[in-house]
Amino acid sequence: MESIEKILSLVYSGQPSNIHLGFKLAASQNIDLQPYFEWIRILWDLEDEVCEAHEICEMFEMKAFFGPASPIPKLPSEIGLLTKLEELELCSCSIENLCPELEKLTSLKILDLCENKLTEVSPEILALKQLESLVLFRNNIHHLTKEVGSLTNLVRLDVSENHLTSIPDVFEHMHKLEHAQFEKNKIEEVPLSLAKLPNLHFLNLEDNNIKRISDEFAKTLFAEGNSIIEISMYNNPIEYIPEILLANSLVLTGTS
């Protein structure tokens, strides 16, 4: 007789042959596996639905998962089993904390956690060095740590509609970044390193507390190799803009 631990290890191996064997052993011993799949019901927002072996097999092969727009009491640690995920979207789920097992999603390229209750860009997110898109708008983030600069594969970063008062000057190595959104925060200064990104096309700084853009930022922005197309500055209490930016409408919008 196999223990429930052994059976679950077969099911959670992700191998179709093991999964079917686990279900077969459970059936032969009259073990109901469904209570052990509560985490699946939480993520999929299922009600009284039986999880079959073939569905578990399909789940482990998923490359994209879009969660329910409903509260998830706690992000299940079992999400770390879905190691083939390349895109994960858990929006409007009232998530306050992430689980350490998120770090196991080493194939993940797109992470969208918008409209939750996160208060930081947590270590679990910072461990995902392969991320290309990170969307955290409309959370409760008050501070960005300097470790954000270690996410050097990011092409898109969105931390708009949070409570940021500053942006760390740590972007110099994020050479792949093309799209950065910081609008609707309380940011007062624009870090110089954002002007050093050769592939940055769009920088959204709308609805902040920015009063000036430095001459050094403007000079660096137009250095050879930089390709920025637009910086949006609508609804900021601007007092000073370098002449080179004022003369280039393709770069700066929202200052008139």
Please characterize this protein's 3D structure:
- By secondary structure, the chain is α/β, with parallel strands linked by helices.
- The protein folds into two domains: 1-61, no CATH class; 64-253, Leucine-rich repeat, LRR (right-handed beta-alpha superhelix) (Alpha-Beta Horseshoe), CATH 3.80.10.
- It is built from seven helices and nine strands, in the order ααααβββαββββαβαβ.
- It has a nine-stranded parallel sheet, with no helix packed on it.
- The chain is elongated.
- 30% of the residues are buried.
- The model has no long low-confidence stretch (mean pLDDT 92).
Might you state the CATH topology name of the largest domain? Leucine-rich repeat, LRR (right-handed beta-alpha superhelix)
Query: What is the N-to-C order of secondary-structure elements (H for helix, E for strand)?
Result: HHHHEEEHEEEEHEHE
pLDDT < 50 stretches: none
Question: Main beta sheet, described?
Answer: 9 strands, parallel
What is the level 1 CATH name of the largest domain? Alpha Beta
Q: Give the integer mean of the pLDDT values.
A: 92
Number of strands: 9
Which CATH architecture of the largest domain is right?
A: Alpha-Beta Horseshoe
The first-to-last residue Cα distance is 77 Å
> What is the domain total for the residues?
2
Let me know the CATH homologous superfamily of the largest domain: Ribonuclease Inhibitor
Estimated share of beta-strand residues: 5-15%
Q: What's the total helix number?
A: 7
Q: What share of the residues lie within helices? A: 10-25%
Give the overall shape: elongated
Q: In what order do the strands lie side by side in the largest sheet?
A: 1-2-3-4-5-6-7-8-9
